[in-house]
Design a protein that fits this description.
By secondary structure, the chain is mostly helical. Helices cover 70% and strands 1% of the residues. It has a two-stranded antiparallel sheet. Helix 4 packs antiparallel against helix 5 and helix 4 packs antiparallel against helix 9. The longest helix is centred in the middle third of the chain and has 57 residues. It is rod-shaped.
Length: 296
């Protein structure tokens, strides 16, 4: 006999219900299975935080400058004459330019991802308010549906901005298609109520689709090969800079500041790819504003 916790997708003849993810659990009898799998994913993600990865990048980059300074002392003087220095500078310019381009692309990509999450959360919050207003216009018989909507919205807030440090979007909400079923169960008495019911069902669908999109986007991360290649290029650049510069306090401080700036950019990139976990978080103001307006 199959276990009750086995992950089995729900099959339904109502195609609309397949889109109501925001207000429905997407698997039947899979709560424990889904939760444990999600915890495993969270554990793997926490092995290397943005702070540790940016620190490692800093050690590699600044370490490259120190290695370059040591090589300068070990190499024969003839290797650093004017003709050799010109070739080295050309190579440095090429690698440095590639590093700057990749770093700029990664920052732009991370910022676009962060902005998309912010926009989608704002859109969901606006749709929740509009749905509550539509149900209020329908009549007092939508009281249970509005309460379910408030409960679902509060759960989204608790999941995304948890005080326990486990903030993240999760592919689960209240058990069952509660809001959808409450709206679907309404019996319109006239054309106006029929129109409101149709619009409400459509809004529930839209909210569910947007939230599922946000969840799928939250599984994305920065390209590890691209990030590794960029750190390697930066390290090579700093090795060459250390090779060309006579070591002194000013040069070392400059190299330190430059390496810190580059690793800081990497930290920002990684933080913006984790908009619900790190220091740079998507604002919860829209969903809190929506909750404040629900039921009025």
């Amino acid at each position: 006999m199959a276990s009750a916790d086995r992950c089995v997708p729900v099959c339904t003849s109502d195609t609309q219900n397949t889109f109501i993810w925001f207000f429905a659990h997407p698997f039947r009898g899979s709560g424990n299975c889904l939760k444990s799998e999600y915890n495993r994913m969270a554990h793997r993600e926490q092995i290397m935080t943005s702070s540790s990865m940016s620190l490692i990048a800093f050690l590699f980059i600044f370490g490259g400058a120190i290695v370059g300074m040591l090589l300068r002392r070990a190499l024969p003087v003839s290797h650093l004459r004017d003709d050799s220095r010109d070739v080295i500078k050309l190579a440095t310019g090429l690698v440095g330019t590639m590093s700057a381009l990749v770093l700029g692309l990664l920052v732009a990509s991370a910022k676009g991802f962060y902005d998309a999450q912010t926009t989608e959360m704002t859109q969901i919050s606006a749709n929740i308010i509009f749905l509550d207003r539509a149900l209020a216009r329908y009549g007092p018989e939508t009281k249970e549906a509005r309460e379910a909507l408030r409960h679902s919205s509060q759960r989204i807030l608790d999941q995304s901005w948890s005080k326990k440090g486990a903030s993240r979007l999760e592919p689960s909400s209240i058990s069952g298609n509660v809001v959808y079923d409450k709206v679907q169960a309404l019996t319109p008495n006239d054309d106006s109520q029929r129109l409101i019911k149709s619009q409400a069902l459509s809004m529930v669908q839209n909210i569910g689709q947007t939230h599922m999109l946000m969840y799928e986007q939250s599984t994305l991360s920065v390209s590890t090969p691209l990030l590794t290649t960029m750190v390697f290029w930066l390290t090579v650049t700093f090795v060459i800079w250390g090779l060309l510069a006579s070591p002194n306090a000013t040069v070392i401080a400059t190299m330190f500041a430059a390496a810190l700036s580059a690793s800081g950019a990497i930290f920002l990139i990684l933080e913006m790819y984790s908009p619900y976990d790190g220091i740079i978080r998507v604002s919860d103001a829209p969903i809190r504003a929506a909750l404040a307006h629900l039921g009025h």
